[in-house]
User: Which sequence fits this backbone?
């Protein structure tokens, strides 16, 4: 099995989390634990149908996992693994910038 490209994972996470509704859903799941679309609709100012659509996109990005429950109810829980990959991508990007920025600051300080 080939490991996913960290940059591709990060891009998927950033694109998925660009939507404020998806960030709200993810935050609600992180704070309250696994929930169904109906549970989330009771807590958020978003319709159940919209939440279901957003949960599908969050699942495609690997940010939530669907768990079958009783009576065909599906509960969703957060999977932080893709966010950790995105954090590592950003940390590497920051490291790549730190050296050149420090050199520029030093150069400007000498001028």
Assistant:
């Amino acid at each position: 099995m080939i490991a996913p490209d960290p940059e591709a994972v990060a891009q998927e996470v950033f694109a998925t989390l660009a939507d404020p509704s998806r960030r709200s859903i993810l935050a609600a799941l992180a704070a309250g634990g696994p929930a169904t679309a109906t549970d989330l609709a009771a807590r958020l100012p978003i319709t159940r149908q919209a939440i279901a659509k957003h949960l599908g996109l969050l699942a495609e990005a690997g940010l939530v996992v669907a768990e079958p429950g009783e009576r065909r109810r599906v509960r969703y829980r957060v999977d932080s693994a893709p966010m950790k990959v995105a954090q590592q991508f950003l940390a590497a990007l920051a490291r790549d910038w730190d050296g050149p920025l420090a050199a520029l600051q030093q150069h400007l300080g000498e001028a």
